[in-house]
Amino acid sequence: MGNPIALLDEATNQTYVLAGRTDYQVTHDIRDELIKRMNETVTVTGTLLKKDNAQLLYVTTVEK
After folding, report:
1. Cβ contacts of residue 60 below 8 Å, gap of 6+?
2. Which of 8, 26, 52, 61 is 20–30 Å from 34 (CA)?
3. In this predicted model, what pLDDT tens digit does every residue of 44-58 receive, in sequence order?
4. Cβ neighbours of 57 (radius 10 Å)
């Protein structure tokens, strides 16, 4: 619905807003994989940007 997807790191209790590189939206493949695994623990890789209390993660991969 256009809302950003966030990731909770249970180990640190940190929250990250997820985005993609080109249009600042998670790509369809990654978005669909994240939605499918919303109740699961996953590992994501990407580039992390931090500013003050905001954390944005540009996702490149999602693994179970």
Report:
1. 21, 30, 45, 46, 47
2. 52
3. 999 999 989 889 998
4. 21
Q: Which residue has the tokens 């209790």?
A: 13
Q: What are phi and psi of 26, to 5 degrees?
A: -60, 130
pLDDT (tens digit per residue) in 5-20: 899 998 999 999 988 6
What is the residue-wise DSSP string for 24-64?
SS--HHHHHHHHHTTTS--EEEEEEEEETTEEEEEEEEEE-
CA distance 9 to 61: 16
In this prediction, residue 25 carries a pLDDT of: 58
Number of Cβ within 10 Å of residue 30's Cβ equals 20
Residue type present at position 44? V
At residue 62, what is the residue type?
A: V
